Amino acid sequence: MKSRIRLTLSQKYELADRLRLAENKKVSKRLLAISLRHYGYKIADIAKIQDVSERTVRSWIRLFQEGGFDKLTQLRYDGDRHSRLQPYLGHIRRWKHAHPQGSLLELQQYLKEEHGLEVEYSWLYRWLRKRGLWG
């Protein structure tokens, strides 16, 4: 599936309305990504602007292409989405216990070196906070 976005005139109006009325920051970011892609921005540039990974931007584009604005703005998903970090939760807890003053950057490096996991810094931070593992 190509990541090119070409909005029809009615989709442009709908996008503008949805952006204007969006009350959720996550929804706004997704809508803005679609708009930027429509106007020719590169995925890497959109990712930098939005402070997300390129993979996330591609995921948003795929959601839009599969189901339009409704699917793009749906924040709840059917089924449980499992994190690829979940199997390493015990390792992360042990690392935190062994390195009480360790930084998130050090944990990120540990995951890469010891387990071959490359995890975006901001995503790792949010994942850990959500589980009460990081201040």
Explain this structure to me?
With 135 residues, this protein is mainly α. The chain contains seven helices and no strands. It folds into two domains: 9-72, no CATH class; 86-130, no CATH class. The termini are far apart. It has helices spanning 9-21, 25-38, 43-50, 54-72, 89-98, 104-115, 121-130.
Tally of separate domains: 2
Bulk shape? elongated
Structural class: mainly alpha
Separation, N- and C-terminal Cα atoms: 40 Å
The percent of residues in helical segments reads 55-70%
Largest sheet: none
Q: What Rg do the Cα atoms give?
A: 18 Å
Average pLDDT works out at 90
Find the count of extended strands (DSSP E, 2+ residues): 0
Please report which band the strand proportion falls in: under 5%, 5-15%, 15-25%, 25-35%, 35-45% or over 45%: under 5%
The H-and-E topology, N to C, reads as HHHHHHH
Number of helices: 7
Uncertain stretches of 5 or more adjacent residues: none
Summarize the structure.
With 135 residues, the chain is mainly alpha-helical.
Descriptive labels:
mainly alpha; 64% helix; 135 residues
Helix-strand blueprint:
Blueprint: H1 9-21, H2 25-38, H3 43-50, H4 54-72, H5 89-98, H6 104-115, H7 121-130
Helix pairs in contact: 1-2, 2-3, 2-4, 3-4
